[in-house]
Structure formats: C-alpha cells, structure tokens
Amino acid sequence: MNITKLSSFDVQLIQQKLNRNEENFDLIDATVKEVMIDVKQHGDAALKKYTEKFDGVKITSLKVQPEEIVAAFQTLDDEFLNVLQEAKQNITDFHEKQLEKSWFNDKNDGIILGQKVTPLERVGVYIPGGKATYPSTVLMTVIPAVVAGVKEIALVSPPDKDGKLHPYVLAAAKIAGVQEIYKVGGAQAIAALAFGTESMKPVDKIVGPGNIYVARAKKFVYGTVDIDMIAGPSEVCIIADNEQNPVFIAADLLSQAEHDEMAASILITTSFDLAVAVQKEVENQLAQLKRKEIARQSIDNYGHIFVVETLDQAYRVANLIAPEHLELLVTDPFLQLSKVKHAGAIFLGPYAPEPLGDYFAGPNHTLPTSGTARFSSPLGTYDFLKRSSVIYYSKEELKKVTDQVVRFANEERLQAHGNSLKVRFNREV
After folding, report:
1. Which positions does UniProt annotate for substrate binding (predicted)?
2. Which of 40, 45, 97, 425 to pair with 374, CA 20 to 30 A apart?
3. What whole-number distance in Å separates Cα of residue 213 and Cα of residue 182?
C-alpha cells in the first residue's frame, strides 16, 4: 500500500490517489440492451438461451423445485444453520425499528391530513454467483422486505455448471421467507423481473448487488420498476489515531480487498509510524489468504494510506470519500461520531470490525458505494414501503380557501383547476 502525507486538504490529490477509472460502458450497454429486448420478446426461451451462453449450462426448469430446497438443508450442518437463524433474528430486530406507520392529523375543524404507508406487493431480489457464495446477502435483502410486509418475493441467482444454486443460498432464502427462487442470473434475470416471462411475474422493485451487466441492466429498467441502487466496487475507510493496533487495521483492510479486484481499502491516520506498521502487516497477512490474488490486485491498485496532521483533517478526507464502510479506530469514537457526514455504515471502536456488519450484527450490508453515501442510505425496511398522502376537507373548510386556490390557479393560467373549486359553490366558471 502506498503512503501519502497530506499537509493540507488537497482535494485534487486525494481524488487522484483514489481514482478508480470509469469503465467505458458502450459495449456493455449494447449487450445489455440486446439481452433485455430478447427477454422481453421471447421470455423463458431467451432466459434459457443466455443461461447456456453465459453460465455454460442447459436448464430445463427455471424455477427451483421444493425437493431442491429440501436437499439443500440436508447439506447444512446444525452449527451453520444456527448461525443463519441467529443472524436472521438480529437483522429482523434491527429492521423492525425502521418500520413506518400511517398517520393522520385531525385538526378538529373539518380538515384531516395524513399519510398512508403501504408495502410494495412484489419484489425481486438478485443474488450474485461466481467468485463467492452469498447467503448473507440473501438475509440482508429479503428480511427488510418481509418486515415491511411485502407479500411476494422472487429471488434470482445464476446457476453453477450443474444447473444448481448453492445450497447455502437456497437454505438462506427459505429461512428468510422467499416464496419463489429462479436459476437465472445476469442482465437476463433483471429483464425477466422487470418485464415478466411465462415463468416469472413482473415485480415492482429489484434489489441486490451484481456485476457490471446486472448494474447496467438495473439502470435501464428503472422507471419500469424501482431499484435499490446502482452498486459499484466496494470500499472500506479506516480513521485511526496513534493508539491503534496495526494487526487489526491490516486485517480489516484485507477483509474488504478480498471481495474483488476493484475494492478499495483506505487508511487515514495521524501517525506515520502506524502507517508503516500497517503497510508491513498487510503484506504479512496477505500472503496467508486463499484469495490473495484478488486481494493483491485490490491492494496494489486501490489500497492507500493517508497520513494527516490532525483528526479533524482525517474526517474531512473521509467525508470527501463518502465511503461505503467507515471504521473509527480512535479514542472515544462516540464523541467523534458527529464529525462523520457521509458514510454508508459506521463502525465504532476496535471491536466492531466491518465483517461484523457484513454478516451478523443486524444493520444492512447493502450500502451505497463509490461516494454515493453523500446522498443515499443503506437498504432498509423503508425501501419496501410507499407513502400516499391523504387529504380531507369539509364543505365549509373548502369554501374558506377557495379564493386562495383559485388565485394560485389563475397565476399559473390553469383555468380548469380553479373551476374545480368554483363549481362546488355555484360560482361562475
């Protein structure tokens, strides 16, 4: 990991050091559009064709059958089953706190105003395959929808070379409360969820991470359906003072680096000695990792250490980055929390490492990436709820405000708007 000393808040230098080159999406978008049009026109046949083309397997049935789920549970040892159940409870407890309720304000004068909160009816969940298996993502994406009251949840995930989904994904889906599971991935799965096929009903919203083809497909279907976010490569940022343990910091940086080659692991510290110690410790630990090739590329290309003069400067740098995960390894982290303005999830102290949030603590691990924490939030129960305004006026109260509303309408040259009120009181229209 490279070390950069920052004597001032140099925005251009920071961005230059952390730059993850924007991909040219033209070729990707052309492929995605072709796939989506094909799925829209040819349904299941197109899904099977692209599953064979991209995943290298012929499938006869897109939908996972009950016996496949039973078989999945038979491969699950009791210990991990208990871990899944504990994680489910923690995630459920946290997301129940986010529930919104309908409310009404009766002014006792013939006016009632309010907001009606209604869960979405049908949601699609995308679970990646490929480099790793993600039962944790199943829990994190499905449970908030269940807590919100969504009635129908359809999960899609790419099959392996045997035409199967990983048993841990199937088990987690069943535990979380999924009703439908389909063996299809990529842009074709997003198209199927958005437009529907013979096997799949269209959904109202699509959530869950995926590769660049999935991300671009989600971007294209937004408007036909809602989506959670366009997830990019992930990142962890750690702010550390000179009292911290370099072994802990290196381990946390590498826990993010092993995700994929474009993951970014960043340390901001007030101690040059700590920076050097972490730099050495990253190399020591990296050599022991099973996914060291992936972690190596991530650390070499997107890992960085900034040495700053004060903690206040460290927070300014972190807020500029607006990281997906932010660890505060500082004395009295609760006292420092108010200085954080932009972060997807904030981990306080040396015993709240980022992987705790990935799997078990309860807050969602589906987080805004690539600086989007400046304006967006983690996936939550609120993402599966919609709000309708409620307005009631008595005849007497409407009459009192008719002149004001008509004046507004006239100023906007919308005569029929004003007439809508006038006719109720036999006024000339």
Report:
1. 234, 256, 259, 325, 358, 412, 417
2. 97
3. 18
